[in-house]
Specification:
The complex is a heterodimer of chains A (401) and B (406).
Chain A lengths: L15 H8 L2 H4 L7 H8 L7 H16 L2 H7 L1 H4 L5 H5 L6 H14 L3 H17 L11 E6 L19 E3 L2 E2 L3 H15 L6 E5 L12 E4 L4 H16 L4 H9 L14 H13 L7 H15 L4 E5 L3 E2 L4 H6 L7 E2 H20 L8 E6 L5 E4 L7 E3 L3 E2 H8 L1
Parallel strand pairs in A: 1-6, 1-9, 2-11, 3-12, 4-5, 4-6
Antiparallel strand pairs in A: 2-10, 7-8, 9-10
Chain B lengths: L1 E2 L2 E2 L3 H8 L2 E2 L5 H17 L6 H4 L16 E7 L18 H7 L3 E8 L6 H10 L18 H9 L6 E4 L23 E3 L1 H8 L2 H6 L24 H8 L3 H8 L5 H15 L4 E6 L10 H24 L7 E7 L22 H4 E7 L7 E3 L8 H9 L16
Classes of the chains: A alpha/beta (401), B alpha/beta (406).
Chain lengths: 401, 406
């Protein structure tokens, strides 16, 4: 089917808000090229479970496309129009399965060596649409705090090596009561500027008690039942002998109820958690990957004002000889390897924060838990400097707030 | 010898026109710095970087007679390592063997640009055919075009035992032989999949427990395609390698990773059969897909060590010493930290310049030492280069012989 044949009734299976959004814009959707439209529908079909900034972005995108003249729209989407699609893609049910279409389109673009053309088209499109909507001012400057190194007694790895050029490295931090200070600081921000999904706390172990109701919070441990169910389903699917495409489709179709999260009070958040576990490679197995990927997705989708991440030891990857020597053993933890994972994860968290609006006022703090090393980045802090003055976490929080 | 619009007679002259920099550098670290600096320049100007290469678009070709006794070993690794974790200052601690033992003896191509599909099996198949293959990366299918093994054996009338592949288990069982009608069946390489052999070597009850060992596709963690190629089975191993099943399983129990097992098997092949063309595909680095940076670094360090061991093995085996060229190259790179569409080192999905750009080193007789080639080349150039060295014509490949090592 071609986009020009699209009818409002074809969105009947979409969730309520998505259906209304799509059906109300059929005239626009009919004019979009097939190399582009299903990708837009992939976003629309999950509109009911999107975070506020995602909804705002999608609303803006549709309004922008509607505001263009037919000639301007053709020019904007010309590079998508030029993509050569296969008859199989054209006949696929891209209205009801835009996500699966997207997977197939990706495979087709790689196989026909059109992926670079698509990449260029996508970057140009996003740049043009974003330029038409100046970002709204933030309620408060963004702040990310990363705590890493839980249970590491001694460390020889040079920490914060990628972040040091951008901030102040502190090597005489007083660690007493540090985690509580950071949790309280995050709670205070959530209370000062309450807003849905704007303040997050993600823990790679179990959650520390926090009092604020305005804080989105979950942990690797809190999702252990869902992870176990998912791994079981993955194993069974694998044993059934299906190929990787069907395997990915199975993961993409996974719903919260299938992982025991159907009764969760917040459907938007439980959908997010399922996506972290099904779309993130390694998130089901390694807690460090889980924390890093969840933070990346939170920034990309919810654009939080406050984010507290705490990395915890992941399970140790056992070398082949150990696996051969002993197959049944309780997984051990790898605090030192996890520290290195988390160090890179903290760098990626800072990079992802800096991709959002307000980067010039945002701040970042990373602390080696229960040790004397930390690094702070912020508009009032010097770059590539080192401080050997004794300092506590409370003081560092003030510096980045 | 014609070279584009320029007539060049000596290698020095070639260097002068092609941007090759003779690495008269004092230390391996300085060589590494030159490599990464060259790469950074390339990545900044990725779209316009072909100018230097254009001068070398017509390459010389050796006569098709193979030099007597000449051999080649190719080492590829799936899941390329980025500059940040290798040749950049912070990464150099991970590659002491490449830096201090190998690069000073090598001609080093700092910009191998892969323009094909960035999936490990299809990309490795493209390396082996010298043409960008476009089949489904996760399907156990043979390459469309003839492989280097078929060119080698058919043109030079070499027996089956003279070309071997040692590779991980996922899909690579079909890499030894293409589906091309003019070559294909009967002209390919023997393929050994050490992890498959290990699983078979264990008892049936143990085999189930060790099923996870067969996992070497970290991007789709639970998928391993059915076999359908002509890989060596367990019962053939003892005959081919003169290695008992018991000894093989016992040795596996002291190795830390599947790649170590692959190198162990490769050593046996070299000692027992001394093939003229040996292709080893390592895969530990692809653990990066799990998102664990420390495991990715450990795998780079292990791969670095194994590359050093392979070179030392070549030098210590009488059948190989002083008559073997070694080529080492990742199949492609990994995503940049700067691309918001990716997640840095974890994947190779964006198709950005860093994920497409990697390096290659060539060593051995006739190859100049301590050279850095800055012009862009492509991994499809490897097969015609092997053809020029060993004496076969890779007539259906898309690449061009790399004149800097001929």
């Amino acid at each position: 089917m071609q986009p020009r044949d699209l009818k409002a009734s074809q969105f009947a299976s979409y969730p309520a808000q998505a259906r209304e959004l799509a059906a109300g814009r059929v005239a626009l959707l009919q004019q979009l090229p097939l190399g582009f439209l299903p990708l837009l529908l992939r976003e629309i079909i999950v509109y009911d479970w999107k975070f506020p900034p995602e909804r705002s972005d999608l609303d803006h995108q549709l309004a922008y496309l509607e505001s263009r003249s037919p000639a301007e729209r053709r020019q904007l989407l010309a590079n998508f129009e030029r993509l050569r699609l296969s008859p199989e893609l054209e006949s696929y049910d891209w209205v009801n399965e835009p996500g699966q279409f997207s997977e197939r389109l990706t495979t087709h673009l790689w196989a026909t060596l059109q992926i670079d053309a698509f990449r260029t088209a996508a970057i140009d499109y996003v740049r043009t649409v974003n330029a038409a909507a100046p970002p709204a001012p933030l309620a408060m400057p963004r702040l990310s705090i990363v705590v890493l190194g839980k249970d590491v007694a001694e460390n020889k790895y040079k920490l914060f090596r990628k972040l040091r050029p951008y901030g102040v490295y502190f090597n005489r931090v007083r660690p007493e009561n540090g985690l509580r200070v950071l949790l309280d600081a995050v709670t205070a921000r959530a209370q000062a500027h309450p807003s849905p999904y704007r303040h997050w706390y993600i823990d790679g172990g179990s959650e520390e008690p926090v009092s604020s109701a305005g804080l989105v919070r979950f942990s690797y441990d809190s999702l252990s039942a869902a992870r176990g169910t998912l791994q079981e389903k993955m194993q069974k699917t694998f044993q059934s002998g299906i190929g990787p495409e069907a395997f990915r489709t199975m993961l993409a179709r996974m719903r919260p109820a299938e992982l025991g999260l159907g009764d969760a009070p917040d459907a938007v958040l439980s959908r997010f958690q399922v996506s972290v576990l099904t779309e993130g490679s390694g998130t089901q197995i390694f807690s460090t990957t889980f924390v890093q990927w969840a933070a990346r997705e939170a920034f990309r989708r919810a654009q939080p004002l406050t984010l507290l991440l705490r990395f915890a030891p992941r399970q140790r990857a056992r070398p082949m000889n150990e696996l051969l020597a002993e197959t049944q053993r309780k997984p051990e933890l790898d605090p030192q390897g996890s520290l290195i994972d988390a160090d890179m994860g903290s760098y990626y968290t800072w990079l992802n924060q800096q991709r959002l609006a307000g980067m010039e006022t945002s701040s970042f703090l990373v602390w080696f838990e229960n040790h004397d090393e930390a690094l702070a980045i912020g508009p009032s802090l010097a770059r590539a400097t080192e401080s050997s003055s004794p300092v506590d976490l409370e003081h560092l929080v003030k510096q980045v707030s | 010898m014609r070279c584009g619009n320029l007539r060049v007679r000596t290698r020095d002259r070639i260097q002068a026109v092609s941007g090759i920099s003779r690495a008269r550098l004092r230390s391996p670290r300085e060589i590494a710095n030159a490599v990464s600096s060259s790469r950074r320049t390339f990545l900044r100007e990725a779209t316009g970087a072909a100018a230097a290469g254009a001068l070398l678009s017509v390459a010389p070709r050796r006569a098709w007679a193979a030099p007597r006794g000449r051999k080649a070993v190719v080492v590829t690794f799936g899941g390329g390592a980025r500059d940040e974790e290798t040749f950049m200052p912070d990464g150099q601690e991970n590659i002491p063997n490449l830096l201090t033992a190998l690069i000073p003896r090598a001609t080093f191509f700092s910009q191998m640009v892969n323009r094909g599909i960035l999936g490990h099996y299809v990309a490795t198949a493209s390396l082996a055919t010298g043409a960008y293959e476009t089949f489904n990366n996760f399907a156990a299918v043979p390459p469309d075009r003839p492989t280097v093994f078929e060119y080698f054996r058919k043109d030079l009338k070499r027996p089956a035992g003279d070309a071997w592949v040692v590779a991980p288990s996922n899909g690579f069982n079909r890499i030894g032989e293409s589906g091309n009608r003019a070559y294909g069946r009967g002209w390919g390489a023997g393929v050994i999949l050490p992890k498959r052999l290990l699983a078979a070597a264990l008892s049936s009850s143990e085999g189930a427990a060790y099923e996870h060992l067969l996992r070497d596709n970290y991007e789709t963690p639970l998928y391993a395609p059915e076999l359908g190629g002509s890989q060596v089975e367990l019962h053939q191993m003892a005959e081919v390698l003169r290695l008992s099943v018991a000894d093989f399983a016992a040795h596996a129990r002291v190795l830390a990773s599947p790649d170590e097992l692959s190198v162990y098997i490769a050593r046996h092949l070299m000692r027992q059969l001394a093939p003229s063309l040996l292709w080893i595909t390592l895969h530990d680095i692809d653990i990066a897909h799990s998102g664990t940076y420390s495991l990715y670094l450990e795998a780079i360090q292990r791969t670095d060590r194994l590359c050093g061991e392979i070179w030392n093995n070549i030098q210590s085996e009488p059948e190989y010493a002083n008559k073997t060229n070694l080529f080492i190259l990742p199949d492609f790179g990994r995503d940049s930290d700067d691309d918001a569409g990716g997640n840095g080192f974890q994947h190779h999905r964006t198709g950005d310049p860093l994920s497409r750009t990697t390096w290659m080193m060539a060593m051995g007789p006739g190859v100049r030492e301590n050279i850095v080639v800055e012009r862009p080349a492509e991994p499809t150039d490897l097969v015609p280069t092997l053809g020029a060295i060993l004496g076969f014509d890779a007539r259906l490949s898309q690449g061009k012989p790399l004149r800097e090592v001929l």
